[in-house]
Every structure is written in structure tokens, then in C-alpha cells.
Design brief:
Layout: H1 2-49, H2 53-66, H3 71-83, H4 87-99, H5 105-117, H6 121-129, H7 138-150, H8 154-165, H9 172-185, H10 188-201, H11 206-218, H12 231-247, H13 251-264, H14 270-281
Length: 283
Amino acid sequence: MRHSTLVMLCLGSAMALSACQKAGETDVDRAIQSVNAIEDNDMSDVMLTVADPNEAVNYFKRTSAEHPDRIDLQRNLAKSLVRSKQNTEAAAAWGKVVAHSESTSEDKVDYADALIRAGNWEKAEAMLDSVPPTYETFDRYKLEAMIADGNKEWKKADSFYETAVGLTTRPSSTLNNWGYSKLTRGEYREAERLFGEAIQYDPKLFTAKNNLVLARGAQRNYQMPIVDMTQVERAQLLHTLALTAIKQGDVTMGRSLLQDAIDTHPQHFDAAVHSLNALDAAN
């Protein structure tokens, strides 16, 4: 009887020990999986931000092929292709993401962005039309504005630009795009205002400075705008203003501005010298 009881106790202890070991192994497995997930996320963040764009593409091609059902890896591959400026492949990759059962409205907007980069504006418009109107983000309205611009639907474009600007704390590039839209329509004073606002948000945005000069020059205002600029930027803007003046028939003013650009540039300004020589040869 004592022997039987001892055997039962030993068996019970062995089973308890076995259960403890299994529980311990499960906990360890879960911990390892958690660590691996964190490492995967960290690696993805690195690849999408500071890593070489082509290296990131190769990394996500490999990992998404190893885990073909993971939409997060498919998204990261599509994002890395956009970052590496492989626009056609990026559009195709985003198309696969959108076809996934777990895709979102944000994915559709990113797909539309990739389609625009690849030059497929019509398909991009159709993709945005499929996004519910309740999904309101800066990226969505920025793209809507660009498409309306391309269709010369000016009222819609202005409405979308205004909405997009209100949905971001960094509207400089959108204000610049809106200003350029106004510039192409011949609304020079409004374009000048928008370029000025873009520069206020981002004083280093040279594209907006150059467009501001174009808008002022189109109004035959050949005074340099009062904005922060380097000496090289000033020379380049004077060159832009000079060409605008010449195009409008104000040749004497254009010649003077070209000379100012050459004198202002801290080094040899080949483009301005070439323009001035061409102008002198024509007269």
C-alpha cells in the first residue's frame, strides 16, 4: 500500500514537473516571438528612413517573399520602391497591397500617390473616387487637388488645396503647388501671396522663392522680394527675374538683372553669362 502511494506521488510529481517545463517553454517561446517582432519593427523603421533606398527594396523583397501573407511587409516594399523612385514598380506593389483582404483607405490613397508618380493620372483619380468621403486626410486632399488641377477644375482644386492646408502643420509644399496653379491660370497676385506663405512656413524652400520671383516678374515687378536667401540663391533669383523680363520684352531691364546676377554670384555664374552673351549677340 505504501509502495503504491509512493508510486502515485512520484508520478504526480513527474507530471507536475513536466507541466511546469511545458509552461516554461511556452513562456520562453512567447518572449522570443515578442523580441523578434520588436526587432522586425525596428529593422523596418531603419530600412524606411535612414537605409539606402535600394538596400531597403532588396530587404523588403526578401522578407515579403518569405512571408507572402503579411500585408505590413508588402506595404513596406511599396514604400521603399517609392523612396527609391522606382515608380512603375511601386505602383504595381501598391496594387497588390490594395488587393489584400486587410487593405485600408490609407492604402488606396498611397496607391493613388504611386500612380501619379508613375504618370497614370486617370487610374489615380478612379482610385481616389473609391475612397469613402468620410476618410479625410492631408494626403488624400493634396492628391485630389493635384488631380483637379490637371483637369483644370479650378474651383475644386482651390477647395481641395484649402482643405489640405488646414490638415497639416507643414503646408509649405502644398501652398507652393497651389501658388503654381494660380500662376498657370494668370492669377499672379494670388500666386505671389501663396508663395509668400509657403516661404514663411519653410524659409529654405527655394522652389517657392523662384516661383515668387516668377509671379512678381509676370506683373512687371522686377524688385527682389524681401525673403531670406543666400548669395548664391540671390544670384539665381536675379537670373530668373532677368529671363522673365526679357520674355516680356523688357530687354534693358533683363540685361541689367543678368549683370547683377553675374556680379552677385560668389563664383563664375555660367548660366547667367551664357544668357547675357546670347542677348548681346541678338542685338
